[in-house]
Amino acid sequence: MNNILFLSKVNKKYLEEIKNYVNQFYVVSVDGREDAEKYINNTEILICYDGDVDIELIKKADKLKWIHLLSAGADNMPFKTLKERGIILTNSRGVHKYQISEQVLGYMLMFERGLNTFLRKQLNKEWDRSIRVSELFGKTICIIGIGSIGEEIARLSKEFGMKTIGVRRSGKPSKFIDEMYNDEDLLKAVSKSDYVICALPLTDDTYHMLNKEFFENMREGSYFINIGRGRVVDEKALIDALKNKKIEGAALDVFEEEPLPKNSPLWDMENVIITPHMAGISPYYMKRALEIIKSNLKAYLSEGEFINLIDLSRQY
Fold this sequence. Notes:
This protein has eleven helices and twelve strands. The chain is of the alpha/beta class. It has a seven-stranded parallel β-sheet. Strands 2-1-3-4-5 form a five-stranded parallel β-sheet.
């Protein structure tokens, strides 16, 4: 009997749910790579987070046919090896859309209502009503990367009376996007926006896609928010844009280097909100991921259609 191996500790009730769903596999959860060694040779399906798998582990998994990522990002996957071996790769795209979208709205509300500034004033017991405040209603938001997260950000933004602009490679329309652009018109899109949201995956094509030219084309007084991937942004160019007041502020959940080094200038900037790559965290995360896994197990066993199948050539 081949294994379905979870490469991290999973709640027993979720393991039982998978065991009850398929009886032709031995379902096991281990605590990291060292414990995985005794099971990997007989593993047909591997369920893990991006970054848990490397070429050496895959070499030991002679029977491996499918990897499902509990994360949405696949930045660290050995795509070439997977392609050579014909290994299927899927991810958990969609399980983050509510919590990440809510966090983006939280960032924007903090900036518009001056809440980040008022919190600092509170620590010093300062009663200061001179802080500039405004509202989201009537503002324009540009979302770069219209997947499930981007679409949910757009939906919530419309509820706040915002105009929505989207940027996606295909330029294909979306229900909650007022204006859609393709990648070639990225600079035009951001120049029209009060808030620019990066929801891009990291691929060979998107590395440092948001560079000096990008920030120079952002509207004066606008804000940048990154809940995509840190290395999509040229961080030096972002820091320069913030220092030179080219943009009004930034909210960042992801960075080029994580944890963010203590000597990064970003820590000391009052117009920057920093969160430690936690926008996707939710108590409902695993429950949602499990629904995708179960659906894909059904597809795997009956040669059906996978949810969130990753194109190994495009890397997303």
